[in-house]
Amino acid sequence: MSAANHRVLHEALTGRRLTKLEYGHELPKLQDRLLDAQFELRKQRTRAVAVIVTGIPGAGRSEVVNELLNWLDPKFVTVYGFRPPNEVERQRPPLWRYWRVMPPKGRIAILHAGWYEEFLADSVRATERDSVVVKREVERIRRLERMLVADGVAVVKIHLHVSPELQARRLRRLARDKATRWRVTAEDRWMARHYARVERVFEHCLEQTDQRPAPWRVVDGTDRQHRAYEVGKVLLAGIDGRLAGEERPVRVKRPAAARQRALRKLLPTNHPGPRVAEEEYDRELEVLQGRLALLSRKRRFAKASVVVALEGMDASGKGGAIRRITAALDARQYRVVPISAPTPDELARPYLWRFWFQLPPRGNYTIFDRSWYGRVLVERVRGLAAPADWQRAYEEINEFERELAEHGVIVAKFWMSVSKDEQVARFAERDRNPLKRFKVDPEDWLNRKSWDPYQEAAADMLALTHTSHAPWTVVPADDKRWARLAVLRSLCDRIEARLG
Amino acid sequence: MSAANHRVLHEALTGRRLTKLEYGHELPKLQDRLLDAQFELRKQRTRAVAVIVTGIPGAGRSEVVNELLNWLDPKFVTVYGFRPPNEVERQRPPLWRYWRVMPPKGRIAILHAGWYEEFLADSVRATERDSVVVKREVERIRRLERMLVADGVAVVKIHLHVSPELQARRLRRLARDKATRWRVTAEDRWMARHYARVERVFEHCLEQTDQRPAPWRVVDGTDRQHRAYEVGKVLLAGIDGRLAGEERPVRVKRPAAARQRALRKLLPTNHPGPRVAEEEYDRELEVLQGRLALLSRKRRFAKASVVVALEGMDASGKGGAIRRITAALDARQYRVVPISAPTPDELARPYLWRFWFQLPPRGNYTIFDRSWYGRVLVERVRGLAAPADWQRAYEEINEFERELAEHGVIVAKFWMSVSKDEQVARFAERDRNPLKRFKVDPEDWLNRKSWDPYQEAAADMLALTHTSHAPWTVVPADDKRWARLAVLRSLCDRIEARLG
Fold it and tell me: How far is the first Cα of chain B from the last one, in angstroms, to the nearest whole number?
């Protein structure tokens, strides 16, 4: 489908039919190839497939899903249907529930209308929608799909269409039989009555969300056998990896030299940073923890939620800062998520998956000890992610945090900026003190060797992901006490600003 | 703690204190051993630890949790707190939310009061509780813990106690400071006012739920340092595996010979079973699917949920029967869960974990293509589970299904009983037909060699797990069509009986 093709839905109604003979001849061959393709997908485990099936009522959406299931080895296919969001889903950004069911590499997930469900329904129903809202929804979907494809999830989008006469006939037949009557919803009947409008709106929606990495395929739903055959071919192309068009290479935004220089100044030098005396620390800590405790108990806080991400070199004091935060909170109100190397399950999904999974419900905190920024820090420096992958991550991260912020999540990010000398001193202390032995990781010394590349990566990260909706706080961390107070103070300020 | 010890809580208040010197001397040694034990736990990955901390208000429950976190390597410890169940949790049996957070082998989970939260609160609050309900709650907890321990999860239960004077003093101090005031809830104040009663009720609750595999340890919360030291020792014993007493060996219930013989008659012979002609099948299928569709759309169905489990030899027609069920349902109303060999993530948990995870919300179906019965079928026959493990599984499964039934879940279990000859014929057909190749598994032929042990295992299973709350339906399955109708009919009957 191309944006230039107007009336593309209508034109899809070629009325082509397959004779029973053609069908009997072609379909087994197609199914044969589908099974082969699925077997390869499973064997290689480098890609996953997400299938979306939309269409107008009566075009055969659920029949198509059933056919797909019949053709494939159902052990490695999962089907998800989505109802209006429940209590748990409503507390997270709209895409959360789709992220939760993202298939791992080697598998196929059929998501029915998936993330198009609300978009299509809202577009058709509302007589006038705020163009800013619509634009944002389109952007959200397009970005999601681009990221999925880049992370190895083929997105197969099939839209089914039929003529108004056939639609009416099919709905009538379903409604006549009491066993199938429930399949015809009020929504379906409304859509059938407004066929022309629905066709126009759907066409527009498809055009806006059609893109090379995840193109729409419109299938004529008139003849069941022809429809099945066409859908099978689209799916095969998706599993084979032949569906997505060549993506334009990502333009890597480089931070302007001046900005980069300015940021470098925030990063550690060997000048001693600010310090605080022990008595003042004790006093101030109590005050700040009290402030945080009170803020987190406010009635208005029950509608917000907080995502805290702490980043910094090894031994920069992330864990200590986190414990000063959690000491002020109710145990049922927060979760601390330490991020280390991804598990096989996590590696099989798009890299943001494990972070989406941990988003807090309203009134709660999730505190990440290291975070999704690993992509542009350790994975970049150690070459664990390909350059193209970590380079696109800046934009993907900004989009992720924007979705959080748009949903009312307070995103507080801290870079704990420790100097090289102080880090050495802390490592030595850890080696001396047996009770800190669990903190000693042979990788720490390895990471130390890459001090300069890490600092460069941190400067890029600060420059490219410091946004109004999710600003960084750079914390001079050579004095642990000072750093802990700074984190607490900044966190309180952010929450206070939000609660008003 | 032993059931004979009355006033055991009061007697725990020894008033022992640690001097700062003792504490400074002993605690680092203890922490050292804790870190070692955690490291071993992590290295061996044969066991997990679930920690429960209860106590009266003011005894220091949350301080203790914080201390535990400070001593251990926090990367491998997860802390969970539980609020009143939310919408998603309320739709599942009460234990569901605890199963969801069960730690994998190698890890420690701190669950605060965990599954004792509601039990203690209800026991203390209600002036008179139905003894049948209480007895059932106690049984549920005792069985859960026994299963966890048998499956490699050490259950560490710590109860903290202080005198009424100290409790009052601590609560007063917390309430005075506006930063800590929120920690004192109305519940806490009520409990403090009814100290004697609370002490008596808690004592009784602990006695009832104290058992050798998961004993209670009562810790005097008077002196913070002594308390920390004692808690650390209990945890160490738990991680080391020294806490659980020797379990009495499981008595293996064997089905009576007569019952066993009667059941064997239900299992396949080489007599041809019932058959149905194609036209009659088509007609009847439509009627039954219509009936199921209507039942599943009833308003009263929205309060029920259905768990279907299909078991049977390879090629007994489970998948075909499932597709005839799902064709009658709304796509958003069911999930089909094919069960094969457990993943590493699943192997790291108690064996029922992956089934608990998949329980449907109200108004929904989960259809298991093979199920938790694998434990007493394939795992028994192939020697994948130790005899003691599959032998205790009958009781564990009955308890699991009872919890589902008590929560209003309709549990429909089908044994698809195919004869040896018919199975051979179907294998041959699969080998011939390339489109059924995904169904051919080298293991199938392997399983065939164990035909007799499988039939024996099936007979035991039917005899030992056919309960009033979750009865088996044995379906003669040599004629696929007849079998599909039988499954649909039985399912409809069960649902209809429930909805009334």
Answer: 48
